[in-house]
Amino acid sequence: MDSAPVASANLSTAQRHVLIAVKRRGEASADEAAEILGITPSAVRQHLAALRSGGFVASRRVRGRPGRPADLYHSTELGESLFAGPSAGDLSVELLGHIEDEDPELVPRVFERRRRRRVEQCRDQLAGMSLGDTVAGLAAILDAEGYMADVDKLPGDSYRLTLHSCAIWAVASHYGLACTTELEFMQGVLPEAEVTRIVHKVAGAYVCAYEIRPRGTTPPTSHPKARRDLTSA
After folding, report:
1. β-strands 149-154, 57-62: how paired?
2. In the chain, what's the furthest Cα-to-Cα distance?
3. Does 213 fall in a domain?
């Protein structure tokens, strides 16, 4: 049974059932989840290991129970987002609309505050890495957030970061600031590099893609066919 990290799109039916069992209890041990689901604790532990690696659950160790200390698992914010439903994005757009009606200057400040928080979090996780490792780490973070991210190595120590899904599509399709601050977020995480958006989902592409190169170097020349393949045109 696979316990490798999983992205939200790749959660198996069994992993979803384990996550639901944990959510229904609020906190649950592997034994408790196994009892709910009618499967072995060993199977549940493997599913929980994959869910924890993917960021969908977290755990805390509890002592004082009979026997050895137990790990109690709970759903994380990422785990909660899987069950938010299709109206969650509509609610975000609606709330931003209300904020804009009350104070138009507040909306840019909200996006900027989100950008700063994300930059700080990512810098803490990726500190001390080479550019290539930082780009790979950033892709892993974005992938876990639902962007279906991957990285291609380009000539001249440059990279292409491709986001095959947009985790904030409902907001991004209504507010251009969402996309602007996403680009600024990447630049903030990669201060030693130049980050250039080469295709844009909001503009009609199938994906969003970015070229990342060390500062002071010549921009890589993307093959025209490769760039066309990323767009719907």
Report:
1. unpaired
2. 65
3. yes
